[in-house]
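seq as requested:
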Amino acid sequence: MERVVFYFSFRSPYAWMAYHRIVRAGTSLPVEFERIPVFPPPDFPNDPAAVPAKLDYILHDVGRIAAAYGLPVRWPASRDTDWMRPHAAWIHAADAGQGDSFALALYGARFSEGRNVGDDAVLRDAARVARLDPAAIVRAAADPALHERVLAGMMRGLGDGIFGVPFFVYRGERFWGNDRVEWLLRAVATNAGTPVPDLASDVLARPH
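struct tokens:
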């Protein structure tokens, strides 16, 4: 089975929805996903929250898409936290084989409950959902070795040309956004010799 590199961030609601879809699809997807956590630095130039009209659109857009996926939305009071902490904690969870359950619990805490995912209490609650040791998760959030692994993943992302999340890399081809999952699957099908819809004949057809 071929591999797709999947860059995600607990800051992004679109990464939340993409992660949710990938986990829910499970083994029905014809590729394996290598998950890599990233987050934007404080001076990141592509922050959509810096443009009021774009932020207003995102709030509405995420609401309608999440509703279609059956995901309740409650926005956190603050857009930011110490982002290193939840992403380092995720690496610990992934090492323990519980990365997906921990990620979905943490995403739910942020976007469905409006909680601060940098807080110890939130990390502990997500650990319990994922059947992990809450104290170990809090220690992992502050572990310099895990911080280095997060930074290494972010450097890898820079090498892959990442500028936002969710971001997928497949055979050197890049796909940005939750709405590009279908185009990623189209590329996978094409490379496997599987027929895909003829969009020149039906411009409203699904890509795959």
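The helical segments are 13-25, 52-69, 84-95, 99-112, 120-129, 134-141, 144-159, 181-191.
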